[in-house]
Design a protein that fits this description.
Blueprint: E1 6-7, H1 9-26, H2 31-48, E2 55-56, H3 57-78, H4 83-105
Antiparallel strand pairs: 1-2
Helix pairs in contact: 1-2, 1-3, 1-4, 2-3, 3-4
């Protein structure tokens, strides 16, 4: 993998969960419950990804997102949120993660 940035998906779960937290704030939803739901989601997603191997960082971040999305949806519905709310948060979080993936895929410019 010469020089390619690699990571374990489990290690990038907090990044995926942070996208949901940011979406939660954008929607002006109560943060006290948001922190609880995000903490539970992070623990559960990390557990599900605990045995995954390193892979290129972009792929690891995608894998983390693929696990976090259904966990967050289940938790939101379990806490009484409507499916539309879960869908809206996923959409916002996905947009945030696309921006993050774009930044990850773009190599930094080095000044000389």
């Amino acid at each position: 993998m010469g020089g390619e940035l690699v990571a374990r998906p489990e290690a990038l779960v907090p990044v995926a969960v942070a996208a949901y937290e940011q979406a939660w704030r954008q929607e002006r939803m109560p943060m006290r419950l948001g922190h609880v739901v995000c903490a539970i989601a992070e623990d559960e997603a990390r557990g599900l990804l605990a045995m995954t191997a390193e892979k290129p960082a972009v792929d690891a971040l995608r894998a983390a997102c693929d696990v976090v999305h259904p966990v967050m949806r289940r938790l939101l519905l379990a806490h009484g949120y409507l499916p539309e709310t879960a869908n809206r948060l996923r959409s916002l979080a996905s947009e945030i993660m696309r921006d993050t993936l774009d930044e990850t895929a773009t190599p930094p410019e080095c000044s000389e």
